Protein backbone atom coordinates (compact mmCIF):
# COMPACT_ATOMS: atom_id res chain seq x y z
CA UNK A 1 0.00 0.00 0.00
CA UNK A 2 2.83 2.40 0.85
CA UNK A 3 4.39 1.62 -2.53
CA UNK A 4 1.15 2.36 -4.36
CA UNK A 5 0.56 5.59 -2.42
CA UNK A 6 4.04 7.07 -2.03
CA UNK A 7 6.21 5.92 -4.92
CA UNK A 8 4.13 7.87 -7.52
CA UNK A 9 5.00 11.02 -5.51
CA UNK A 10 8.76 10.41 -5.74
CA UNK A 11 9.19 13.15 -8.37
CA UNK A 12 7.93 15.70 -5.86
CA UNK A 13 9.70 14.18 -2.82
CA UNK A 14 12.89 12.26 -3.63
CA UNK A 15 13.05 9.98 -0.55
CA UNK A 16 9.82 8.28 -1.70
CA UNK A 17 11.93 6.72 -4.46
CA UNK A 18 13.10 4.21 -1.83
CA UNK A 19 9.76 2.44 -2.14
CA UNK A 20 10.77 1.39 -5.64
CA UNK A 21 13.29 -1.07 -4.22
CA UNK A 22 12.17 -4.53 -3.15
CA UNK A 23 15.06 -4.84 -0.73
CA UNK A 24 13.96 -1.71 1.14
CA UNK A 25 10.34 -2.80 1.30
CA UNK A 26 11.25 -6.36 2.34
CA UNK A 27 13.35 -4.93 5.18
CA UNK A 28 10.48 -2.66 6.14
CA UNK A 29 8.13 -5.64 6.14
CA UNK A 30 10.41 -7.55 8.54
CA UNK A 31 10.53 -4.69 11.03
CA UNK A 32 6.83 -3.84 10.76
CA UNK A 33 5.72 -7.43 11.35
CA UNK A 34 8.09 -7.74 14.30
CA UNK A 35 6.81 -4.53 15.90
CA UNK A 36 3.16 -5.50 15.35
CA UNK A 37 3.81 -8.89 16.97
CA UNK A 38 5.47 -7.29 19.97
CA UNK A 39 2.58 -4.82 20.38
CA UNK A 40 -0.34 -7.23 20.13
CA UNK A 41 1.37 -10.34 21.55
CA UNK A 42 0.92 -9.82 25.31
CA UNK A 43 -2.75 -8.78 25.05
CA UNK A 44 -3.58 -11.64 22.68
CA UNK A 45 -1.89 -14.23 24.89
CA UNK A 46 -3.66 -12.95 28.00
CA UNK A 47 -6.99 -13.10 26.19
CA UNK A 48 -6.33 -16.63 24.93
CA UNK A 49 -5.31 -17.72 28.44
CA UNK A 50 -8.51 -16.32 29.98
CA UNK A 51 -10.73 -17.82 27.28
CA UNK A 52 -9.13 -21.27 27.09
CA UNK A 53 -8.40 -21.65 30.84
CA UNK A 54 -7.04 -25.20 30.60
CA UNK A 55 -5.13 -24.46 27.40
CA UNK A 56 -4.54 -26.84 24.51
CA UNK A 57 -5.52 -30.47 25.21
CA UNK A 58 -2.38 -32.60 25.48
CA UNK A 59 -2.19 -36.01 23.80
CA UNK A 60 -2.42 -38.77 26.41
CA UNK A 61 -0.25 -41.04 24.23
CA UNK A 62 2.48 -38.42 23.83
CA UNK A 63 5.69 -37.99 25.84
CA UNK A 64 4.87 -38.12 29.55
CA UNK A 65 6.73 -34.88 30.27
CA UNK A 66 4.30 -32.93 28.09
CA UNK A 67 1.46 -33.64 30.51
CA UNK A 68 3.41 -31.68 33.12
CA UNK A 69 5.33 -29.02 31.21
CA UNK A 70 2.79 -28.04 28.54
CA UNK A 71 -0.52 -28.38 30.33
CA UNK A 72 -2.44 -25.09 30.52
CA UNK A 73 -0.53 -23.38 27.70
CA UNK A 74 -2.99 -21.64 25.35
CA UNK A 75 -3.07 -22.40 21.64
CA UNK A 76 -4.16 -20.38 18.55
CA UNK A 77 -1.00 -18.24 18.76
CA UNK A 78 -1.07 -18.43 14.99
CA UNK A 79 -3.38 -15.41 15.21
CA UNK A 80 -0.34 -13.38 16.25
CA UNK A 81 1.64 -14.53 13.21
CA UNK A 82 -1.21 -14.02 10.76
CA UNK A 83 -2.09 -10.56 12.06
CA UNK A 84 1.51 -9.31 11.90
CA UNK A 85 2.10 -10.97 8.52
CA UNK A 86 -1.08 -9.61 6.93
CA UNK A 87 -0.69 -6.04 8.20
CA UNK A 88 2.95 -5.87 7.15
CA UNK A 89 2.34 -7.40 3.71
CA UNK A 90 -0.52 -5.02 2.93
CA UNK A 91 1.57 -2.04 4.03
CA UNK A 92 4.73 -2.84 2.08
CA UNK A 93 3.76 -4.96 -0.96
CA UNK A 94 2.56 -3.76 -4.36
CA UNK A 95 -1.15 -4.51 -4.03
CA UNK A 96 -1.56 -4.66 -7.82
CA UNK A 97 0.46 -7.89 -7.88
CA UNK A 98 -1.78 -10.93 -8.24
CA UNK A 99 0.76 -13.36 -6.80
CA UNK A 100 0.78 -11.50 -3.49
CA UNK A 101 -2.97 -11.92 -3.16
CA UNK A 102 -2.87 -15.60 -4.11
CA UNK A 103 -0.25 -16.42 -1.46
CA UNK A 104 -1.92 -14.19 1.15
CA UNK A 105 -5.35 -15.73 0.58
CA UNK A 106 -3.92 -19.27 0.77
CA UNK A 107 -2.26 -18.33 4.05
CA UNK A 108 -5.41 -16.83 5.55
CA UNK A 109 -7.63 -19.60 4.17
CA UNK A 110 -5.49 -22.30 5.73
CA UNK A 111 -5.34 -20.24 8.89
CA UNK A 112 -9.13 -20.31 9.02
CA UNK A 113 -9.14 -24.09 8.65
CA UNK A 114 -6.60 -24.32 11.46
CA UNK A 115 -8.67 -21.99 13.63
CA UNK A 116 -11.74 -24.20 13.24
CA UNK A 117 -9.62 -27.22 14.19
CA UNK A 118 -8.14 -25.46 17.23
CA UNK A 119 -11.54 -24.14 18.30
CA UNK A 120 -13.02 -27.63 18.35
CA UNK A 121 -10.04 -28.97 20.29
CA UNK A 122 -10.35 -26.29 22.94
CA UNK A 123 -14.15 -26.10 23.18
CA UNK A 124 -14.65 -29.87 23.25
CA UNK A 125 -11.42 -30.64 25.17
CA UNK A 126 -10.58 -33.14 22.43
CA UNK A 127 -7.09 -33.32 20.84
CA UNK A 128 -8.55 -34.64 17.54
CA UNK A 129 -10.37 -31.43 16.54
CA UNK A 130 -11.81 -31.08 13.04
CA UNK A 131 -12.59 -34.19 11.03
CA UNK A 132 -9.58 -35.22 8.95
CA UNK A 133 -11.66 -35.64 5.78
CA UNK A 134 -13.32 -32.25 6.17
CA UNK A 135 -9.99 -30.56 6.86
CA UNK A 136 -8.41 -32.16 3.79
CA UNK A 137 -11.36 -31.22 1.57
CA UNK A 138 -11.13 -27.57 2.60
CA UNK A 139 -7.38 -27.57 2.01
CA UNK A 140 -7.83 -29.07 -1.46
CA UNK A 141 -10.43 -26.49 -2.47
CA UNK A 142 -8.18 -23.57 -1.50
CA UNK A 143 -5.17 -25.22 -3.16
CA UNK A 144 -7.19 -25.75 -6.34
CA UNK A 145 -8.09 -22.05 -6.50
CA UNK A 146 -4.45 -21.08 -5.92
CA UNK A 147 -3.14 -23.48 -8.57
CA UNK A 148 -5.59 -22.29 -11.21
CA UNK A 149 -5.01 -18.64 -10.34
CA UNK A 150 -1.25 -19.06 -10.59
CA UNK A 151 -1.49 -20.79 -13.97
CA UNK A 152 -3.68 -17.98 -15.32
CA UNK A 153 -1.18 -15.32 -14.24
CA UNK A 154 1.93 -17.06 -15.54
CA UNK A 155 3.03 -16.94 -19.21
CA UNK A 156 2.12 -19.89 -21.40
CA UNK A 157 5.68 -21.22 -21.40
CA UNK A 158 5.64 -21.58 -17.60
CA UNK A 159 1.98 -22.25 -16.81
CA UNK A 160 1.61 -25.98 -16.23
CA UNK A 161 5.38 -26.56 -16.35
CA UNK A 162 7.59 -28.15 -13.71
CA UNK A 163 11.17 -26.85 -13.42
CA UNK A 164 13.87 -29.35 -12.47
CA UNK A 165 16.70 -28.18 -10.17
CA UNK A 166 20.32 -28.44 -11.38
CA UNK A 167 19.31 -28.39 -15.06
CA UNK A 168 19.40 -25.15 -17.07
CA UNK A 169 16.54 -25.44 -19.49
CA UNK A 170 14.56 -28.47 -18.34
CA UNK A 171 10.83 -27.77 -18.09
CA UNK A 172 8.50 -30.73 -17.85
CA UNK A 173 5.22 -29.68 -19.41
CA UNK A 174 2.43 -31.18 -17.31
CA UNK A 175 -0.38 -29.10 -18.81
CA UNK A 176 -3.52 -29.21 -16.73
CA UNK A 177 -2.04 -32.14 -14.80
CA UNK A 178 0.06 -29.47 -13.12
CA UNK A 179 -3.01 -28.47 -11.09
CA UNK A 180 -3.20 -31.67 -9.00
CA UNK A 181 0.58 -31.55 -8.60
CA UNK A 182 0.45 -27.95 -7.31
CA UNK A 183 -2.41 -28.89 -5.00
CA UNK A 184 -0.30 -31.73 -3.61
CA UNK A 185 2.60 -29.32 -2.99
CA UNK A 186 0.46 -26.81 -1.10
CA UNK A 187 -1.50 -29.35 0.94
CA UNK A 188 1.59 -31.45 1.58
CA UNK A 189 3.63 -28.48 2.78
CA UNK A 190 0.80 -27.34 5.04
CA UNK A 191 0.42 -30.70 6.75
CA UNK A 192 4.18 -31.27 6.95
CA UNK A 193 4.66 -28.07 8.96
CA UNK A 194 1.67 -29.07 11.07
CA UNK A 195 3.32 -32.40 11.93
CA UNK A 196 6.58 -30.66 12.81
CA UNK A 197 4.88 -28.29 15.26
CA UNK A 198 5.22 -30.41 18.37
CA UNK A 199 7.86 -28.74 20.55
CA UNK A 200 8.44 -25.16 21.69
CA UNK A 201 10.04 -23.25 18.82
CA UNK A 202 10.55 -26.36 16.69
CA UNK A 203 8.42 -25.38 13.68
CA UNK A 204 8.69 -21.59 13.59
CA UNK A 205 12.47 -21.33 13.14
CA UNK A 206 12.66 -23.75 10.16
CA UNK A 207 9.69 -21.87 8.66
CA UNK A 208 11.61 -18.60 9.01
CA UNK A 209 14.72 -20.18 7.51
CA UNK A 210 12.68 -21.42 4.53
CA UNK A 211 11.04 -17.98 4.21
CA UNK A 212 14.47 -16.29 4.08
CA UNK A 213 15.57 -18.66 1.33
CA UNK A 214 12.40 -18.08 -0.66
CA UNK A 215 12.74 -14.32 -0.18
CA UNK A 216 16.03 -14.61 -2.08
CA UNK A 217 14.55 -16.99 -4.65
CA UNK A 218 11.51 -14.74 -5.21
CA UNK A 219 13.70 -11.68 -5.66
CA UNK A 220 15.97 -13.42 -8.18
CA UNK A 221 13.17 -15.15 -10.09
CA UNK A 222 11.30 -11.84 -10.36
CA UNK A 223 14.38 -9.94 -11.67
CA UNK A 224 14.93 -10.50 -15.40
CA UNK A 225 18.68 -9.78 -15.33
CA UNK A 226 19.46 -12.01 -12.35
CA UNK A 227 17.18 -14.79 -13.60
CA UNK A 228 18.93 -14.77 -16.96
CA UNK A 229 22.38 -14.77 -15.34
CA UNK A 230 21.50 -17.69 -13.07
CA UNK A 231 19.62 -19.45 -15.89
CA UNK A 232 16.48 -19.86 -13.85
CA UNK A 233 12.95 -19.21 -15.04
CA UNK A 234 11.93 -15.55 -14.95
CA UNK A 235 8.45 -15.02 -13.47
CA UNK A 236 7.43 -11.39 -13.81
CA UNK A 237 5.83 -10.06 -10.63
CA UNK A 238 7.05 -12.84 -8.36
CA UNK A 239 9.64 -10.54 -6.82
CA UNK A 240 6.91 -8.99 -4.68
CA UNK A 241 6.79 -12.23 -2.70
CA UNK A 242 10.14 -11.21 -1.20
CA UNK A 243 8.12 -8.63 0.73
CA UNK A 244 5.69 -11.32 1.89
CA UNK A 245 8.59 -13.55 2.94
CA UNK A 246 10.15 -10.65 4.82
CA UNK A 247 6.87 -10.09 6.65
CA UNK A 248 6.76 -13.81 7.46
CA UNK A 249 10.26 -13.69 8.94
CA UNK A 250 9.36 -10.67 11.08
CA UNK A 251 6.10 -12.23 12.26
CA UNK A 252 7.93 -15.46 13.03
CA UNK A 253 10.54 -13.66 15.10
CA UNK A 254 7.82 -11.88 17.03
CA UNK A 255 6.03 -15.16 17.69
CA UNK A 256 9.26 -16.89 18.72
CA UNK A 257 9.71 -14.28 21.45
CA UNK A 258 6.60 -15.71 23.12
CA UNK A 259 7.05 -19.31 21.95
CA UNK A 260 10.63 -19.77 23.17
CA UNK A 261 10.87 -22.51 25.84
CA UNK A 262 8.95 -22.57 28.05
CA UNK A 263 6.29 -21.41 25.59
CA UNK A 264 3.74 -18.84 26.65
CA UNK A 265 1.56 -19.81 23.68
CA UNK A 266 1.41 -22.46 20.95
CA UNK A 267 0.77 -21.51 17.33
CA UNK A 268 -1.71 -24.38 16.95
CA UNK A 269 -3.10 -25.44 13.60
CA UNK A 270 -4.10 -21.80 13.09
CA UNK A 271 -0.44 -21.06 12.52
CA UNK A 272 1.12 -24.29 11.29
CA UNK A 273 -1.38 -25.04 8.52
CA UNK A 274 -1.21 -21.42 7.33
CA UNK A 275 2.59 -21.22 7.30
CA UNK A 276 3.03 -24.50 5.45
CA UNK A 277 0.40 -23.48 2.91
CA UNK A 278 2.20 -20.17 2.39
CA UNK A 279 5.51 -21.89 1.63
CA UNK A 280 3.81 -24.27 -0.78
CA UNK A 281 2.05 -21.43 -2.62
CA UNK A 282 5.29 -19.41 -2.90
CA UNK A 283 7.08 -22.43 -4.37
CA UNK A 284 4.54 -22.89 -7.17
CA UNK A 285 4.59 -19.20 -8.06
CA UNK A 286 8.39 -19.12 -8.28
CA UNK A 287 8.55 -22.49 -10.09
CA UNK A 288 10.71 -23.95 -7.30
CA UNK A 289 8.35 -26.66 -6.11
CA UNK A 290 11.04 -29.35 -6.02
CA UNK A 291 13.49 -27.03 -4.29
CA UNK A 292 10.94 -26.64 -1.48
CA UNK A 293 11.41 -30.33 -0.69
CA UNK A 294 15.11 -29.60 -0.10
CA UNK A 295 14.77 -26.27 1.71
CA UNK A 296 11.95 -27.71 3.83
CA UNK A 297 13.64 -31.08 4.11
CA UNK A 298 13.09 -31.16 7.87
CA UNK A 299 9.34 -31.04 7.30
CA UNK A 300 9.70 -33.86 4.76
CA UNK A 301 11.62 -35.99 7.28
CA UNK A 302 8.96 -35.48 9.92
CA UNK A 303 6.21 -36.43 7.48
CA UNK A 304 8.06 -39.49 6.19
CA UNK A 305 8.59 -40.67 9.76
CA UNK A 306 4.83 -40.68 10.31
CA UNK A 307 4.16 -42.49 7.02
CA UNK A 308 6.80 -45.12 7.76
CA UNK A 309 5.52 -45.61 11.31
CA UNK A 310 1.91 -46.10 10.24
CA UNK A 311 2.79 -48.34 7.28
CA UNK A 312 5.12 -50.51 9.38
CA UNK A 313 2.59 -50.94 12.17
CA UNK A 314 -0.23 -51.86 9.79
CA UNK A 315 1.87 -54.28 7.76
CA UNK A 316 3.99 -55.93 10.47
CA UNK A 317 2.48 -54.85 13.78
CA UNK A 318 5.85 -53.31 14.72
CA UNK A 319 6.91 -49.69 15.09
CA UNK A 320 10.08 -48.33 13.48
CA UNK A 321 10.30 -45.35 15.83
CA UNK A 322 9.53 -45.16 19.50
CA UNK A 323 7.02 -42.49 18.60
CA UNK A 324 6.20 -40.41 15.51
CA UNK A 325 6.70 -37.70 14.33
CA UNK A 326 10.47 -37.97 14.48
CA UNK A 327 11.05 -35.34 17.18
CA UNK A 328 9.05 -37.40 19.66
CA UNK A 329 11.24 -40.42 18.88
CA UNK A 330 14.28 -38.56 20.15
CA UNK A 331 12.37 -37.33 23.20
CA UNK A 332 11.56 -40.95 23.99
CA UNK A 333 15.25 -41.77 23.66
CA UNK A 334 15.98 -39.31 26.44
CA UNK A 335 17.03 -36.19 24.55
CA UNK A 336 16.03 -32.98 26.35
CA UNK A 337 13.50 -30.86 24.48
CA UNK A 338 15.94 -27.94 23.84
CA UNK A 339 18.47 -30.44 22.47
CA UNK A 340 15.96 -31.83 19.97
CA UNK A 341 14.82 -28.37 18.93
CA UNK A 342 18.25 -26.84 18.42
CA UNK A 343 19.63 -29.86 16.56
CA UNK A 344 16.61 -29.84 14.28
CA UNK A 345 17.19 -26.10 13.67
CA UNK A 346 20.75 -26.93 12.61
CA UNK A 347 19.47 -29.59 10.20
CA UNK A 348 16.96 -27.10 8.78
CA UNK A 349 19.73 -24.55 8.23
CA UNK A 350 21.95 -27.07 6.42
CA UNK A 351 19.09 -28.18 4.16
CA UNK A 352 18.20 -24.55 3.43
CA UNK A 353 21.77 -23.88 2.26
CA UNK A 354 21.60 -26.99 0.08
CA UNK A 355 18.36 -25.75 -1.47
CA UNK A 356 19.80 -22.29 -2.03
CA UNK A 357 22.81 -23.79 -3.81
CA UNK A 358 20.53 -25.10 -6.56
CA UNK A 359 20.34 -21.53 -7.88
CA UNK A 360 23.97 -21.70 -8.97
CA UNK A 361 24.56 -25.41 -9.56
CA UNK A 362 23.27 -25.80 -13.09
List keywords for this structure.
single chain; about 350 residues; about 65% helix; mainly alpha; 2 strands; two-stranded antiparallel sheet
Structural commentary:
The chain is built from 15 helices and two strands. The protein is mainly alpha-helical. It has one domain. It has a two-stranded antiparallel ribbon with strand order 1-2. Helix 4 runs parallel beside helix 11, helix 8 (204-221) packs antiparallel against helix 10 (241-259) and helix 8 (204-221) runs parallel beside helix 11. The radius of gyration is 20 Å and the shape is globular. The two termini are 37 Å apart.
Tell me what portion of residues adopts beta-strand conformation.
under 5%
Question: What structural class do helix, strand and pairing data support?
Answer: mainly alpha
Overall tally of domains: 1
**Order of helical and strand elements:** HHHHHHEEHHHHHHHHH
> Quick check: average pLDDT?
91
Structural shape: globular
Radius of gyration: 20 Å
Major β-sheet strand ordering: 1-2
Distance between the termini: 37 Å
Q: What is the number of helical segments per DSSP (H or I, 4+ residues)?
A: 15
Strand element count = 2
Indicate the percent of residues in helices.
Answer: 55-70%
Low-confidence stretches: none
Major sheet: 2 strands, antiparallel
Amino acid sequence: MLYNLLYPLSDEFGPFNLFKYLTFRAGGAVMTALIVAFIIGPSLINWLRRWQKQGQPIRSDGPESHLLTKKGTPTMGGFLILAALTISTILWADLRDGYVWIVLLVTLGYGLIGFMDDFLKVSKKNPKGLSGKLKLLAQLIIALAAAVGTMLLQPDTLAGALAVPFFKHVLIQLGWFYIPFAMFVIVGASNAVNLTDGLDGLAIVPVMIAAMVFAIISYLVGHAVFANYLQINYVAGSGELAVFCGALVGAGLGFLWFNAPPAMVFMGDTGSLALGGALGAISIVTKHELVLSIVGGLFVLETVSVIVQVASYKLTGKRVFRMAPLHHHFEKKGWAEPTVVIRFWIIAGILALAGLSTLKLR
